[in-house]
Amino acid sequence: MTQPLDGLRYEKDEHIAVLTLDRPSTGNAVHAAMHAQLRAVWEDVRTDRSVRAVVVTGAGERHFCTGMDVGGDDAAAHTVGNGPLDQEVLLTARQNRVWKPVIAAVNGTVAGGGLHFVVDADIVVAAAHATFLDTHVNLGIVGGLENVGLAKRLPIGTALRMSLQGRDFRLSADRAYQLGLVDELVTEGTALDVALEIARSVARNSPVAVSRTQEAIWSSLETGYAQALAYAWSLIRVQWSHPDAHEGPQAFGQRRTPQWNPDPDATAVPRTHR
Are 261 and 189 part of one and the same domain? Predict the structure, then answer.
């Protein structure tokens, strides 16, 4: 990326990218200019075939992300425009239609818009001291997008309590783990390390197969069961012609590390039979 980042750190090491919300003095809140920056980051993730998994975290150990930086200014309360959803809200990989796994390393409090990064993550690792709350209604704003995501990952009553009580209801990391919003609960100061370990594990697998598997599962949330199965079957069939579908079994049989092809458009060379 050539674009300078303000309030973000974006680093890559081998097949893992780490995106850090880096404004600890404001609770790692997202300011208006960060929307375009985040969109650029996700476009880089999409196009860089060396990146196979992304970890999203916050700077420090107190806050993961406390949402949008409203700063007490009516104008600042609206950090996005008034256009269509797919043009205005592009904070996360899911919102940018990027099919590469994202692991959230929740290192502290998550509030309001910070929940975007949690509900849209594939895997959520949280420190035991982290808490989750939604403050939209406290500011006179509709809790809609992140809250729909909460309702997909939590019991409806808990999602509604968070959304309707606002800052008066805080979901602890332990309770979030019990209810399934958090996938792994860890001690303070270790969320990033655990998330990186998971990301490296994911990155050892076929990147194209991982991407299509991820797409099949997420897409199933938007359709009926039969339609979801049909779409998943279409992705399975497409993968059969990819080189990785041949390389994987061969490497397993030969007891060697697979050499994956990250190009989703690659096709296997037909075998010749004698």
Answer: no
